[in-house]
């Protein structure tokens, strides 16, 4: 990278070695995370009321007919596990995009109300308008974009201050949650389990019909965000430096917002706002990877791993079947508090 | 002003508002409260005539209208009492923390009371009404201490941003715990909704009677701390210079406020934003003197909650909307507007 013609001083070599070492560590972490995600995915296909050995599961996935396993694994567990991976990747990717862009670990879309806006819209479309499938996803994405624009506009008084954006987001989140509660209460019989899907997120009763739109969104929008990786890191240096580096600041920012909000909205329309995944994935990935390189891929993998493991824990580790959002909520909230405590201690002005 | 940057600046005209204007506003607010109480008995999924209301007040419940009024009278009283408690509690909290975003809902204190009650019911077989009130107060106090401790770490002390974030995070954690505790218990999962969203629908005179002594103590302690809150508003050093025992004064006022919101949550579930909106509106009417602000906030809190309850009954006819949902819908935009008014430096 550094074009030095003369004999290179020792420090340059040291820097180069350090860079290679960190890149190697990053590759290793990504590989390990990917292996773990695959393992958790396989586990969630095998474990359940009846245990199926890996051979059976593999044959079902390859499309062969296995008595018993074809229905249980193919129709019940596979869409659920695929949605867990897709939602985890989407939430992780979108979360870390927002955190990177706004330069604040607390500015994740579930803290600042974008996810809850999407959830309120999805619940509204299903309960009041009787819609399903793609129409619900579209409603969710329109609402999520609307919330993002509204928040940005409200926070804009000569420049967007991060602190104000977060506080306004908290207000919007409170409002969206109460709209969700309103919609659910109008639904007549308060079905606790169904209500939980739109309040904390749940994978129960997942079908291919819900999984496919989220999967397609990830296939389209995921690469879009990954292409932006370099520009997003540039934005972290501040708008002026970034544009001096040749990054088109506004275009990058708008593309990133649209991409991230789209991912969130499709995933939320499928399984509800799984609590704290987009908030947790980025900081955890940063902890593992260290301060080098982009966090997008590791954070996405961490998100997928979180959802898969939390869903397994929620289903089987405890006496009752908990929806995945309750598990991630119980895990995530203490971490959020820890993060606030640590930031406050360090004297940072959040 | 430099010592108390967070509380809206007492500009000279407001601070020296003549007593007659305040008295006038007092009459207006009391009249509004009476009118809302009357409306709350009459309006609902079935409107009731005045003759039925009068008959119901006399103890009769022969017609459907009279029966409806008999149910709405305790409900109205509960809304007034709980609203007053929350409004006053919020005003005291904003004074104690010198923080314009303080509110028992925003800071997660109501949720602390809720979680304590759910734990008590689910794990310790709690069922006596008095025990539930005590549990709620302990939970509220625990959450208040925790959130304030987390929010005030580090440089700058308890800034609005840090307190609001700590409160939101704590609320989210507590809701998750409430759900996790209630879900395996089919027997209580049905009623758990009322511990996540507050409402006054199931009011009875018995419930009001149980909680009233706690609220009265809370009202007394809070109202008596008005003078020390005035000194505290000048900043800790200046208050100490004026002969105020700062820690004691702050502790007493906080205790009164926690008593109020804990007891209110015990009887009506967690209701947010009343304590945020009311003191801000009252400050516009009567200025920043806590001796006026506190009683005003109590009365106006009763007005707001009664009005929200009426709205909740009208918009969702023939069913009804929990008052906690209505207050959040009204209060959250208000929260946002307060945030927008503050300078970034003060957040």
SSE sequence of chain B, one letter per element: HHHHHHHHHHHHHHH
Largest interface: A-B, 54 and 51 residues
Distance between the termini of chain B: 16 Å
Number of helices of chain A: 14
Given helix and strand content, the structural type of chain B is mainly alpha
Q: How many strands appear in the DSSP assignment of chain B?
A: 0
Which ranges of chain A are low-confidence, i.e. pLDDT below 50, for 5 or more consecutive residues? none
Q: Kindly provide the name of the CATH class of chain A.
A: Mainly Alpha
Under CATH, the topology of chain B can be stated as: ABC transporter involved in vitamin B12 uptake, BtuC
Number of helices in the DSSP assignment of chain B: 15
Mean pLDDT of chain A, to the nearest integer, reads: 83
The largest pleated sheet of chain B is described as: none
Major sheet of chain A: size, sense and barrel closure?
A: none
Radius of gyration of chain B: 20 Å
Which percent band covers the strand fraction of chain B?
under 5%
What does the overall shape of chain A look like? globular
Q: Structural class of the helices, strands and pairings of chain A?
A: mainly alpha
Within CATH, the superfamily of chain A carries the name ABC transporter involved in vitamin B12 uptake, BtuC
What's this entry about, in short?
By secondary structure, chain A is mainly alpha-helical. Chain A has helices at 10-46, 54-61, 69-101, 114-127, 134-155, 162-186, 192-199, 208-227, 229-235, 239-244, 249-271, 277-289, 296-317, 324-345.
Give the secondary structure arrangement, pairings included:
The complex is a heterodimer of chains A (350) and B (347).
Chain A: H1 10-46, H2 54-61, H3 69-101, H4 114-127, H5 134-155, H6 162-186, H7 192-199, H8 208-227, H9 229-235, H10 239-244, H11 249-271, H12 277-289, H13 296-317, H14 324-345
Chain B: H1 12-15, H2 19-42, H3 50-57, H4 64-97, H5 109-124, H6 129-151, H7 160-182, H8 186-189, H9 205-224, H10 226-232, H11 236-241, H12 246-268, H13 274-286, H14 290-315, H15 323-341
Helix pairs in contact in B: 2-4, 2-14, 3-4, 4-9, 4-12, 4-13, 4-14, 5-6, 5-7, 5-12, 6-7, 6-12, 9-12, 10-12, 10-14, 13-14, 14-15
């Amino acid at each position: 990278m550094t074009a030095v013609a003369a004999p290179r001083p020792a420090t340059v070599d040291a820097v180069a070695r350090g860079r290679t070492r960190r890149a190697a560590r990053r590759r290793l972490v990504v590989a390990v995370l990917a292996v773990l995600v695959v393992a958790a995915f396989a586990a969630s296909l095998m474990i359940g009321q009846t245990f199926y050995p890996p051979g059976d599961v593999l044959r079902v996935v390859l499309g062969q007919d296995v008595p018993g396993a074809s229905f249980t694994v193919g129709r019940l567990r596979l869409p659920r596990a695929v949605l867990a991976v897709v939602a985890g990747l989407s939430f992780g990717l979108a979360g870390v995009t927002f955190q990177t862009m706004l330069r604040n670990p607390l500015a994740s879309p579930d803290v600042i109300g974008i996810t809850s806006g999407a959830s309120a819209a999805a619940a509204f479309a299903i309960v009041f308008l009787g819609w399903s499938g793609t129409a619900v996803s579209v409603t969710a994405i329109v609402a999520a974009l609307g919330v993002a624009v509204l928040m940005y506009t409200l926070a804009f008084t000569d420049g967007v201050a991060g602190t104000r954006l977060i506080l306004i987001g908290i207000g919007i989140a409170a409002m969206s949650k109460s709209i969700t509660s309103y919609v659910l209460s109008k639904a007549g019989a308060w079905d606790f389990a169904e209500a939980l899907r739109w309040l904390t997120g749940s994978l129960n009763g997942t079908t291919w019909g819900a999984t496919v739109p989220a999967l397609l969104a990830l296939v389209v929008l995921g690469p879009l965000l990954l292409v932006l990786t370099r520009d997003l890191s540039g934005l972290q240096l501040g708008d002026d430096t970034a544009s001096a580096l040749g990054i088109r600041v506004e275009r990058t920012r708008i593309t990133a917002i649209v991409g991230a909000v789209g991912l969130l909205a499709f995933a939320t329309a499928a399984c509800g706002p799984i609590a704290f995944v987009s908030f947790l994935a980025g900081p955890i990935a940063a902890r593992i990877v260290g301060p080098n390189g982009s966090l997008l891929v590791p954070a996405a993998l961490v998100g997928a791993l979180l959802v898969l493991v939390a869903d397994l824990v929620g289903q089987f580790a405890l006496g009752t079947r908990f929806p995945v959002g309750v598990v991630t909520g119980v895990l995530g909230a203490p971490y959020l508090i820890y993060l606030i405590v640590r930031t406050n201690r360090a004297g940072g002005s959040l | 002003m430099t010592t108390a940057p967070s509380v809206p600046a007492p500009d000279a005209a407001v601070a020296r508002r003549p007593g007659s204007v305040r008295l006038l506003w007092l009459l207006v607010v009391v009249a509004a409260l009476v009118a809302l109480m009357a409306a709350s008995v009459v309006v609902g999924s079935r409107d009731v005539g005045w003759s039925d209301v009068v008959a119901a007040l006399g103890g009769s419940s022969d017609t459907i209208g009279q029966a409806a009024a008999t149910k709405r009278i305790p409900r109205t009283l509960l809304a007034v009492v709980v609203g007053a408690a929350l409004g006053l509690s919020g005003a005291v909290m904003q004074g104690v923390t010198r923080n314009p975003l303080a509110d028992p809902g925003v800071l997660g204190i109501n949720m602390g009371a809720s979680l304590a009650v759910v734990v008590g019911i689910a794990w310790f077989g709690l069922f006596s009404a008095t025990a539930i009130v005590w549990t709620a107060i302990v939970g509220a106090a625990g959450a208040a201490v925790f959130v304030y401790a987390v929010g005030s770490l580090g440089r700058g002390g308890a800034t609005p941003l840090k307190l609001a974030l700590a409160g939101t995070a704590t609320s989210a954690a507590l809701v998750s715990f409430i759900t996790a505790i209630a879900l395996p218990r089919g027997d209580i999962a049905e009623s758990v909704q009322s511990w996540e969203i507050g409402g006054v629908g199931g009011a009875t005179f018995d419930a009001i009677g149980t909680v009233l002594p706690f609220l009265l103590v809370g009202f007394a302690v809070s109202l008596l701390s008005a003078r020390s809150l005035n000194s505290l508003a000048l900043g800790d050093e200046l208050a100490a210079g004026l002969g105020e025992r700062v820690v004691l004064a702050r502790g007493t006022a906080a205790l009164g406020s926690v008593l109020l919101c804990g007891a209110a949550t015990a009887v009506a579930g967690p209701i947010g934003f009343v304590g945020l909106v009311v003191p801000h509106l009252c400050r516009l009417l009567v200025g920043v003197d806590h001796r006026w602000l506190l009683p005003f906030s109590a009365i106006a809190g009763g007005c707001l909650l009664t009005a929200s309850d009426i709205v909740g009954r009208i918009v969702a006819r023939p069913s009804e909307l929990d008052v906690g949902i209505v207050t959040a819908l009204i209060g959250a935009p208000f929260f946002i507007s307060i945030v927008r008014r503050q300078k970034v430096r003060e957040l």
